[in-house]
Amino acid sequence: MRKVSGPTDKVIVVGAGLGGLSAALRLAGAGREVTIVERESVPGGRNGLIVDQGYRFDTGPTVLTMPSLIEEALASVGEKLSDWLELIPLRPLYRAFYHDGTQLDVFPNTAEMEEEMFAIINEEGVEAPNAAVRTQKCLQIANGAIYTNDKGVWEDVHAAKLDALESIIEEANGAPVIVAYNFKHDLERLQARFRQGRVLDADPDTIRQWNAGRVPLLFAHPASAGHGLNLADGGNILAFFGVNWNLEEHMQIIERIGPMRQKQAGYDRPVHIYPILARNTVDDMVMERLSSKKSVQEILLEALKRRNEDV
Fold first, then answer.
1. Is the pTM above the cut of 0.85?
2. Which domains does the chain show, CATH number per domain?
């Protein structure tokens, strides 16, 4: 392999998938002469199409949830997405089917998703055991992604909370931050965005490294931050990427770096808690539950009454 030293005006991009095409557009927009090589007969990578016996099958994503990314790539070479594609909004985006026989229509924003959720809860009754479970879909969307089946497949919806977390990390100015997450897709998206992060796991070395100040960003599920765990030496900043109904787990992870832990560790410093919330969504209901200690059923019943009064 020959290493090219210094700047070059000619670039070869291997692979004409979405990533390769995006990189090529941005490089071309920056004034580089770009050549793309692709082994297949058409570009697109995993975003392909099979036509067989009159039927069309997508081999990759079927929903475009973040068109702004394509707009940005095309804008780098002075083009507009609307000049190349006609995007047709779908209502719903798609219909997800689950193993228990239930189904869920997925809409592009949290307001429509909550209408769907409350329609189901209103039909089944707010006292039903799965009433809070129904809200999990909306909590997922508030966080920025949603599972589309029972096999762990998920779709991106937005990156607003990732952007908010990035601002918190920047404001921390190098101080270590713990990030509490709820769903596995939360963790996957966090790891993809913040490569410097480490997951709180069963390895004792993880806690030692955190408390020694060698971990700048620690991803922790509240359920994994059990009683007796002391993380105060590592820092005093906690961000909730998402919130959930479990009050005990919420208080439990706060206590791991809380004021009492800080004092026991010999530190005289405040504890900073940052809940990242999607306003006017189920996040608000969960925060009401966590701050008032009302039951989940009480919160949902009050919300249902308010919605019925507004109709």
1. no
2. 10-83 (3.50.50.60), 94-157+281-310 (no CATH), 160-275 (3.40.50.300)
